[in-house]
């Protein structure tokens, strides 16, 4: 754990690398696109910085057609947060950050934006077999999945049928509930793909995929989440943060401490 954190801190130790993460937070970029943000820096230097960020697992590289895009992976930052920000400190810290943000925006208001799409890529290493991780992601999801749509004060439970056409569903009351995902592809225990709004409303097309790769000592879980349509500007950030917490904290702790 400490060795991994040392690599993360090394990756964060240069201002250009921190700026690259700021840029990737807004949207994934190719190396060429990133280089345009740094006219005074050579493409080779940007590639070296990206390599260090990739070694720290802060950047994920995915091929899209003939291009390779770099995605922010904030899961390691969530692990740093978990180690040093306590449960009761978090509320205070978040309040102060919100106050700072409001002051810096000088009263600016959030608006609805016709955003074309967003694409989130994250990965987390879990010290368990692919079979155990796949089971936790699907049939045991209700044991660790913390986000709920049920009305406040109403208890609910989850079911997840990991077969083509199966549903990841939250149920409450007699006939009330919500579908978090519709399964349209399964190759257990390697991959499962779902359509699901995941809390978004309106004219939105959203899909997410779990891929599980065998690694020495455990499983590398890769998440891909894409959405398009009429999207509120904060949804990408909220979902990226939500996935970091769900997979990097809740699922990881559930499987490793089971």
From TrEMBL:
Q: Which Gene3D superfamilies does this UniProt record tie to the protein?
A: 3.30.530.20, Winged helix-like DNA-binding domain superfamily/Winged helix DNA-binding domain (1.10.10.10)
Q: Which InterPro entries match?
A: ArsR-like_HTH, ASHA1/2-like_C, HTH_ArsR_DNA-bd_dom, START-like_dom_sf, WH-like_DNA-bd_sf, WH_DNA-bd_sf
For molecular function, the Gene Ontology terms on record are:
DNA binding; DNA-binding transcription factor activity
Q: Which Pfam families match?
A: AHSA1, HTH_20
- UniProt keyword list: DNA-binding
Q: Where is the HTH arsR-type domain?
A: 1-92
Q: Which CDD domains match?
A: HTH_ARSR, SRPBCC_CalC_Aha1-like
| UniProt KW DNA-binding keyword | yes
- Report if keyword DNA-binding is assigned: yes
Q: Which family does it belong to?
A: Belongs to the AHA1 family.
Name it.
Answer: Helix-turn-helix domain-containing protein
Q: Which organism is it from?
A: Fictibacillus marinisediminis
């Amino acid at each position: 754990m400490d060795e991994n954190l040392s690599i993360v801190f090394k990756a964060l130790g240069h201002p250009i690398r921190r700026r690259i993460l700021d840029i990737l937070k807004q949207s994934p970029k190719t190396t060429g696109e990133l280089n345009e943000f740094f006219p005074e820096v050579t493409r080779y230097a940007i590639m070296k910085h990206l390599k260090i960020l990739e070694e720290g697992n802060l950047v994920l590289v995915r091929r899209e057609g003939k291009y390779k895009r770099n995605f922010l992976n904030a899961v390691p930052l969530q692990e740093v947060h978990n180690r040093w920000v306590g449960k009761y400190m978090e509320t205070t810290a978040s309040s102060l950050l919100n106050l700072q943000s409001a002051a810096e925006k000088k009263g600016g208001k959030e608006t609805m934006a016709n955003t074309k799409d967003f694409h989130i890529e994250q990965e987390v290493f879990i010290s368990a077999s692919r079979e155990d991780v796949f089971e936790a992601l699907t049939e045991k999801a209700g044991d660790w999945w913390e986000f709920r749509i049920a009305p406040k004060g109403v208890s609910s439970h989850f079911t997840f049928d990991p077969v083509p056409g199966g549903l990841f569903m939250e149920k409450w009351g007699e006939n009330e509930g919500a579908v978090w995902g519709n399964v349209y592809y399964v190759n257990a225990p390697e991959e499962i793909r779902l359509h699901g709004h995941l809390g978004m409303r309106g004219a939105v097309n959203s899909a997410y995929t779990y891929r599980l790769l065998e690694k020495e000592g455990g499983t590398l879980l890769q998440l891909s989440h894409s959405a398009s349509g009429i999207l509120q500007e904060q949804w990408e950030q909220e979902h990226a943060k939500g996935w970091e917490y769900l997979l990097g904290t809740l699922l990881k702790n559930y499987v490793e401490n089971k």
